[in-house]
Amino acid sequence: MRLAKWSLIKDIVKKANVVLEVLDSRNPIGTRSRKLEEMTFKYNKNLILVLNKIDLVPKRVALKWKEILTDADVRVVCFSALSKRGVEELKKVIRCSTDKRPLRVAVVGYPKVGKSSVINALKGKKSAPTSPIPGSPGYTRGIQLLKIEEGIYLLDTPGIIPIEGGLFESVIRGKSPEELKDPIPAAMLLLETAMKYNSKCVLDAYGISERDPYKVLELIAIKRGWRYKKGGEPLVEEAARNVIRDYHKAKLSFYIPPEEALLVEK
Ligand SMILES: Nc1nc2c(ncn2[C@@H]2O[C@H](COP(=O)(O)OP(=O)(O)O)[C@@H](O)[C@H]2O)c(=O)[nH]1
Ligand SMILES: [Mg+2]
Description:
By secondary structure, the chain is of the alpha/beta class. The chain folds into two domains: about 5-160, 3-Layer(aba) Sandwich (Rossmann fold); about 175-265, Conserved Hypothetical Protein Ylqf, Chain: A, domain 2, CATH 1.10.1580. About 40% of the residues lie in helices and about 15% in strands. The protein has eleven helices and seven strands. It has helices at about 5-15, 35-40, 60-70, 85-95, 115-125, 165-175, 185-195, 200-205, 215-225, 235-250, 260-265, and strands at about 20-25, 45-50, 75-80, 105-110, 145-150, 150-155, 160. Strands 1, 2, 3, 4, 5, 6 and 7 form a seven-stranded mixed β-sheet that branches. Strand 2, helix 3 and strand 3 (about 75-80) form a beta-alpha-beta unit. The protein is elongated. Bound molecules: guanosine-5'-diphosphate and magnesium ion (MG). Guanosine-5'-diphosphate (GDP) binds next to helix 5.
């Protein structure tokens, strides 16, 4: 995984006029970065929150989040890079966010929220990467620009926000599952959280009705035949890495309800 650094984020924000902060609709508050937002306002850039992955939550939940997150300085667009929902609306909101032209748009967010997917959805099939000539509209040194329509360019490099704060998201997104030395505590926390919000999710994903997170991992390893060569004990680490991947792939299905976030915020 590429190293996330605040200095890079600052660079990207400064080069853009509009910043798209991509959030995972399953946990928008947990994937939101106040520090990024403060930086965006400090440099006088427009902020748009992209509630990505709305295909993974009920419509009511997506709309509630939109209502909660919208305020005077912040526009919110419900989006799914997977089912291509919200593409036209997002383009419209970008277009109307400022009169500045050329308009440069940066895509920023935590790992795995769908930044690359949002970039692909916005650029569509037709537009190829462009390297504008220095001095031409939209030219930015050192960064590839993609023209998404007349006068509007997308910075081709997503800004990966360094993980800080929230324990849950930092264990799930801070490192790729392969890089985690001990993935078991992270996977146990994930399973606990998942079962709290969707009591059926482990049964649906793995056909396992056990509720103790460690035992769930053991049973997954046994089911898949993952065992230590020596001694034959279940290879719980492998199960743990898979559970984390399954959250990113949404095989393990749950979301944080907006009502709960409101209680925490207020
Ligand atoms: N269900 C669903 N999955 C998505 C969506 N957008 C991205 N993903 C998945 O989320 C994972 C991370 O996406 P990616 O674009 O690589 O995220 P990035 O790390 O922020 O660039 C991938 O497995 C994507 O297929 C979406 O709108 N819906
Ligand atoms: Mg990416």
